[in-house]
Structure formats: C-alpha cells, structure tokens
Design brief:
The complex is a heterodimer of chains A (367) and B (133).
Chain A (H helix, E strand, L loop, with lengths): L4 E2 L3 H6 L3 E5 L2 E6 L4 H10 L2 E4 L4 E6 L3 H8 L12 E7 L5 E11 L2 E6 L4 H10 L6 E4 L4 E7 L3 H6 L14 E7 L2 E6 L8 E7 L3 H12 L5 E2 L2 H10 L35 H10 L4 E7 L10 E4 L2 E12 L4 E8 L1 H6 L3 E5 L2 E8 L9
Parallel strand pairs in A: 1-3, 4-14
Antiparallel strand pairs in A: 2-3, 4-10, 5-8, 5-9, 6-7, 7-8, 10-13, 11-12, 12-13, 15-18, 15-20, 16-17, 16-19, 17-18, 19-20
Chain B lengths: L10 E2 L4 E6 L2 E6 L1 H7 L2 E5 L6 E2 L4 E7 L3 E5 L4 E6 L2 H4 L3 H4 L8 E4 L4 H4 L4 H13 L1
Antiparallel strand pairs in B: 1-2, 2-3, 3-9, 4-6, 5-8, 6-7, 8-9
The chains are: A alpha+beta (367), B alpha+beta (133).
Chain lengths: 367, 133
C-alpha cells in the first residue's frame, strides 16, 4: 500500500482536532471533538461541512459520450438536460455492481462523473475497457477537492459568498464556473445525508481558501465540521446505499431495490441488462430490507439475521440512529420468509436480539 | 494533549480498565481515556451475575456508535453484581466513568493480581506514552 494521501483540507481538520483515519487511502477525519451524535444532529438541524475530496471525478467528452454512458450505466440518461444530474449504478454483464455514480451533464458531448474513492481506478479501467467511438476519458480526481455543505442552513450560508441564485437551483442540478468567494467551482445541489445541501468542487490550490470562506460565512449559522462517521450514519438513516455494503460485485442493484435507477427497457443495450431482466422475472432470494431493533443491541455489518432457527440473510449496514434514537440496519433477507414472519432476530455475538422490518428510508426530511 | 481524568484509589490495566477494591469485592469499569477514545457509548453487554471472569479475558462488551470494544477482566473472580443502569443509560460510562459508569463487581480471589496493575502515577505515564504514538 502506498502512503495515505492528504486532502487540501487536512490542516483544517487537524486544527479543529478531528480524529484522523486512513479511509480508502485518504487521511480524513472520522469525527470531531463534539462527537458523531452531535454531528448528526447538527446536520439535521443546522449545517455541517464535510471534506469529501476522496471522491473521484472522471470527465467523459466527445460526440459519442452519451452513447458510451448509455452502455455502461443502468439508468437512462437520454432525457438528461444540461445542468442536470442523474444517479446510476454501473454493472458488469452479470448484473454485479462495479460502482454507483453521479452523472453531471454539462452538454450533450460533455459529462462529469463522480465515483467512489475506493473504486476510482477500477471504474476508470472498466470505462476504458468499454470505450468505443469518439469518446475521451480523463481521470480528474487528482485535481479536484470537494466539500459537502449539508443541512437546512446550507443555502443561507453559501449564498453569502456567491452571486449565483442558489434557492433557484433544483435538487440534483448544478452550475459550473460559479464564483464562490472568488474561487471557480462546480456547485451542485446534492448530498449523501438526506438533507438539503450542496457539493462544491474546486481545484486543490484554491481549496483551503474556499474552506475558510464557507467556514466564516457559516459562523452565524452555527456551522460545524463533521466527519466520515456522521456521514455514514446520516446516509444509513436516509437509506442511501454504500458501495461495499448495499452494492458490490456479488449484489445487483435490483437486490438493493434500486429499480428506479435501472432502466430495464432502455432502447439501447447496456451492461447487465439481460441478467437484470432475468433476475427481475425470476425473483430474488436476497432483497434489501430496513430493520429496526425491538431490544437494545447494535446490528452491525455482517451479523446474521434469523427467523426461527433459519438464517435468512445478513446485515449490510447498521448503527445507532441519533435522529430516531433507535438501532437500525439495512439487511439482505429472503423476501418469502420476511413476508411470513412478523419478528426476526439479529445475531450479535451468538446472542439473538429481536428485530422487525420497517419501511425505508428510516428518515425523510420534511420539505 | 487532552486532559484525561485519572483518579486515585483504583488500579489500571494496559487495556484501560480500572478496578477499585472495596473490602472483599472490587468494582470494575472503563477509564476516562478509554471512554473518550470510544466515543458516545450506546450499548453495554453485561456479564451474568455468578459467572467466573478471568484476568485478561473479555468480560463485557462496550459499544459506541462506530466501535465494538471488549472490557477485559482486570482480575479473576466471580461476578456478584452488575450495573443494570447501563442497560438503559450506557452513556453513564462517558459522563462518569469512575462513578455511576461502573460495569460490574467481582469477588476478589487473589489480591496479588491487583498489585501488578498500574496505580495512578504509572497509568498517567502509560496514557501519555500512548497519546504520543
């Protein structure tokens, strides 16, 4: 393993006494002194700032860019307008997942992809392997820093330092070349927390001054920093999948209930189309469910789930939820058995704890 | 460096448990340093009253939002009481690690086992060294 990389915000995290960990080869704060629970509350009630510079960015350009993407992603991007963003899994021909990504359409010949940090190189190789026609790929990850400003106060904070009318920006839309405190940025109304907010991309050189400007603008709105720990809990409460947990090589997007991001009827064929159509028809032995513990116990990744004596699946992500004050999990379970059983059990260190399935997402913000 | 509370009258292990002798029995808990490293504690799996715990072996499980940690028994002995308050308020370990956040009480079997554990001064040095790493 090469040495873990520092993002341009590393010094900021250290100054704020963030607890630094190596995450996918990046030195990032897992939490700050106020603690993960407070960071979750602050995101839901006020606003928090996350360093997400580890995310990868890939540009796809050329007159066949759209055709190329239509082939590698499961969602249908043909209706995507300039300035709009779409979420999509990327599948192997057998339906297993390469990654889940965001696709920003700059214009019909130019797209900007945001991919998971740990998958950046794998994705890039996979894209190259599937390349045809007039398409130029560029891995822009080394040049970009990214901040996520999340929470109900996000618009009020960011608006102080940009002339771009942010309230008019719709969810899953973006603008490029936006001046934020004099720094040229891509600003998108997106996030991974279930709250309103923005993701802001800029060059590494200008990143520290962008942080300072947002930080200062946030002071009268109680802006606080948040780490990877809070990010993981927030996305779990909002039931957003995380690659390596709800999506992976051996799990299809249909199993993760991402049906609305899989355009099975897309007029052009795409990787995984046949396999996923077949799976849709045949049904699945393991399907994603939400679980809520009926007694105190922390369901964690990998723990078995049982019904009676039978093991019916596993927890893919689980945690204490500060927002709901409950213990929650997402789990891949046998849908037939779930239907027939009111109560299930999660096996935690060889002891069984009562649980029941619950509707996803666990948390949905009021709009 | 952060300031951790390190109290007198208890002995400390290298895994950051504390043990406080009170006559024939001793209370066991997690040090302030350990609770701070773990973060907000949300669940405690207590031993059953009557079980024999063995020094150096896991005797309880303490979980924060992100981590699962074993509480290793500082000394051998039979568990005679557990702190059931922790079932509903595991955060007592964060707020009062040496007081209301105690985990269980054991019968002391071998007093010598206490002698080899660290006192306040030794533990202060130990924590300071661990912090530097």
């Amino acid at each position: 393993m090469s040495e873990a990389k520092k993002t341009p915000f590393y010094e900021k995290h250290v100054a704020l006494e963030g607890k630094i960990v190596d995450y996918s080869g990046w030195l990032l704060p897992v939490q700050f002194p106020q603690g993960l629970v407070e960071e979750v509350h602050a995101t839901r009630r006020k606003a928090t700032l996350f360093d997400v510079s580890h995310m990868g960015e890939v540009s796809v350009e050329g007159k066949d860019a759209e055709a190329f993407l239509q082939k590698v992603v499961t969602n249908d991007i043909s209706g995507l307008k300039d300035g709009a963003i779409i979420y999509s899994p990327v599948c192997y021909p057998d339906g297993g997942v390469v990654d889940d990504i965001l696709i920003y359409r700059i214009n019909k010949n130019n797209f900007f992809l945001v991919v998971n940090a740990a998958n950046t190189d794998k994705d890039y190789d996979w894209f190259l392997e599937n390349l045809s026609g007039d398409v130029e790929l560029q891995n822009l990850s080394p040049h970009f820093a990214q901040l996520a400003l999340q929470g109900p106060e996000s618009v009020a904070i960011l608006q102080q330092i940009t002339a771009e009318p942010l309230a008019e920006m719709k969810y899953y839309h973006f603008k490029k070349d936006v001046a934020v405190a004099g720094v040229k940025c891509i600003v998108s109304r997106t996030g991974y927390t279930g709250e309103d907010g923005f993701e802001v991309y800029c060059s590494n050189d200008e990143a520290p001054s962008l942080w300072d400007a947002i930080w200062e603008a946030g002071q009268k709105h109680d802006l606080s920093p948040a780490g990877l720990g809070a990010r993981d809990v927030l996305r779990l409460e909002a039931a957003m999948p995380l690659y390596g947990h709800e999506l992976e090589r051996e799990i299809t997007p249909l199993q993760a209930r991402l049906d609305r991001f899989v355009a099975l009827e897309k007029p052009v064929s795409f990787n995984g189309q046949e396999a996923l159509r077949r799976q849709k028809q045949e049904g699945m032995k393991r399907l994603l469910f939400g679980l809520e513990m009926l007694e105190r116990g922390v369901p964690r990744e990998g723990y078995p789930v049982t019904a009676g004596e039978e093991e019916i699946g596993w927890v893919s992500s689980g945690s204490y939820s500060p927002t709901l004050d409950k213990f929650i999990a997402m789990a891949f379970l046998d849908p037939e058995v779930v239907k027939a059983n009111e109560e299930l059990k999660v096996v935690i260190r060889s002891r069984s704890y009562r649980a029941r399935t619950t509707k996803l997402p666990f948390y949905r913000r009021e709009k | 460096m952060m300031d951790y509370k390190i109290v007198d009258g208890v002995r400390y292990t290298q895994k950051h448990e504390w043990v406080r002798p009170e006559g024939e029995t001793a209370k066991v808990g997690l040090s302030d340093y350990a609770q701070d490293k773990l973060g907000e504690i949300v669940f405690v799996e207590l031993p059953e009253v009557g079980v024999e715990v063995e020094a150096g072996k896991s005797s309880a499980v303490i979980e924060s939002v992100k981590a699962v940690a074993d509480l290793y028994a500082p000394i051998d002995g039979k568990v005679v009481e557990v702190n059931e308050e922790l079932l509903d308020q595991p955060e007592l370990i964060n707020s009062d690690p040496y007081g209301e956040g105690w985990v269980y009480k054991v019968e002391i079997r071998d007093g010598n086992q206490l002698e080899i554990l660290m006192d306040k001064k030794a533990y202060e040095v130990f924590v300071a060294e661990e912090e530097e790493e």
